[in-house]
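re: ur question from yesterday

yeah so i grabbed the chain u mentioned. its 494 aa long if i counted rite. heres the sequnce exactly as i have it in my notes:
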Amino acid sequence: MNKFKKFLNIFTLILLIFNFKVFVQADDDNRIERIESQVQDALIKIKAIEKKNKNTTEMKVGPGLKIKSGKNEVKLAGRIHFDVGMHDADPILGCDVANTEGGSCFVDGTNFRRLRLGFSGKYGGGFYYKAQVDWGASAKQQSTLSDADGMNDITSVDEAFMGYKLSKNSTISIGKQKIPLSFAESTSSNDLPFIERAPSVDAMTDHTLGPKRMSVQYRNWDKKMGYLFETAIHGAGDMTPTEAVDEQLGYTARIVYAPFMSKSTVLHLGYWYDFTDTDTADTSMEWDYRIGLNVADEKPIDADIGSDLGDINNMTHWGGEIALLYNNFWAAGEWLWGEMERENGGLRNGANVATCTSVEANMGYYELGYTMGGQRRYTIKKGGWKRPKVKNAVNKGGMGVHEFGVRFSNSSLNDLCPGYGSQGSMRNTTFGYNWQLTNNNRIMVNYIIAKLDAEAVDEVTSLSPGASFNGTLTNSYGNDNQVKALGIRFQTNW
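ran it thru and got these structure tokens back, copy pasting raw so excuse formatting
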């Protein structure tokens, strides 16, 4: 009897356990179903919110203005670069030989180097555009209007183009836009480590390749593989023709490879090539530039090849690039080469230049620096520098970012061709300091030492060898003459 009772108790216990397990399992199943139902309801609500947001217009103010509605957006952007420049030139560089007070061709002054306002946007799931005007000195530089006193208000269309995003990493665009050449030119003026690009870069490209021209461009880049390829078919830089000649037509290609690319380490290698077919009656081709500031308009190296020699049939330019970023240290350098081929020889402006079938020049620069409180950045999308990001902004009680750099540039136009003559050479050393207060505001200070050879001095002063200055100083042309300059830029962009 006792054994039967024990068996009955055990059997009852087993039944209870089994029934409890079945009950729990059934309850879990119900609970899972309820959770799945809640998740489905949540997903439906999220999709409804997303659909609603696509039709909602958002506006973001500061800095700049951004309006977004779904995949469509428009941005208001601009930049102000205000420069102050002071020069200290050797006496031989006086503009007026008869002036007993001496003086210098390199005047002191102020200048709105850039005063730009524009807008950009995207729409239609792949289309984008940008338009920007400039009231600064760069507008005057590009303008064909007469400005005898240098005080007239001049406005220039700096950029105006439209494009389509073919894929995540490729685009095609048409309009007036920057030509794909040079590491320095591919770096925005907002991000340059020095006030101006190296004189060797500007001398080679400003009056021959733009740097912004009417063009059709294709770009393709890959961040993971570290490459950029861009090419363009371009015309003249101005929006309207200035001479009774056919518009120039050329093509440019640039390839960039970054075998090492991370936030702290970058090695950049680049090469670009441009060929431009010119009209023989076009006299606008020049290689010239200032000492490194845009306050004084004097250009110690100046080769007006188009007007001096004439009959320019085509131009070829190419350059090699290298840049290195390692934590807070950065460095870059470029070598540029250019050639202009003539259609015919003969006499031009009284000079026998029959032997000048082509004109060649090469020049370059290298720079290095160190950043405190931040790190200079690199973008493979453009193949150029980006300024440091400020983590401790001055307006939030921080010290901002401090950047120190030095640059050496050599620009020579003395070996262009036999019979043409020397057009001057210039060696520049630039010491730079940048104080980036916020991500959108910076103060830049540059100290420049420019050494000019005899031909460069003559280009500025129109003195001939042996000419007297102030009745006491004789220009022997035995040594380089120096121009020292201090430049300060106050910069903001949005």
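noticed a couple things. The longest helix spans residues 2-54. also The chain is about 15% helix and 45% strand.
anyway ttyl
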